[in-house]
Amino acid sequence: KMAEFLNLTQLKTSLKETILFDYYTAGFWWAKEMNFSLIQISGFMGLLNFALENLSSKRMTLGDNVKELERAVTGIRETESEEGGDLNLFSLDQGKAIVDFLFSSLFQYYKTYEYLFHVRREEPVLSNE
């Protein structure tokens, strides 16, 4: 269902789609384990997407992305994006846990994700045809 929702149609042949699927699935199950409500899970998944979009589409540096995430989590972000934080959505402890999760999942491997999105790779040869 997650792959269908994310419109990932080439999971078996696309390394990029497989990595994105793993990223979002890990985040979803982490939020479930944190006993987040449905609204909180939705907000958290939005933050995951926000941070990944900053990297992939906007090509933000790690430092800039962390600053944007801080603004989003605290609800004082001043960007043109429609996604924003809600001060009442997460408790302080939950907010800290979310930041820890993002640092251990996305930000720790930022260079790897940059490579995934911005370095052109040769297509593998899958057959003689």
Short note summarizing the structure:
The chain is mostly helical.
Description:
The chain is mainly α and 129 residues long. The protein contains 6 helices and no strands. α2 packs antiparallel against α3 and α3 packs antiparallel against α4. The longest helix is centred in the first third of the chain and has 19 residues. About 9% of the residues have low confidence.
Number of strands: 0
Number of helices, counting only DSSP H or I runs of 4 residues or more: 6
What is the strand content?
Answer: under 5%
What are the segments in which pLDDT stays under 50 over at least 5 consecutive residues? 76-87
Main pleated sheet? none
| Shape designation | globular
Q: Please give the share of residues in helix.
A: 55-70%
Helix-strand pattern, N to C? HHHHHH
Quaternary structure: single chain
Structural class determined from secondary elements? mainly alpha
Distance between the first and last residues' Cα: 33 Å
Radius of gyration: 16 Å
> Which whole number gives the mean pLDDT?
78
List keywords for this structure.
129 residues, mainly alpha, 6 helices, 0% strand, globular, CBCO1 protein, CLAMP
Question: What is the topological layout?
Answer:
Elements: H1 2-5, H2 15-33, H3 38-56, H4 62-74, H5 92-105, H6 110-118
Helix pairs in contact: 2-3, 3-4
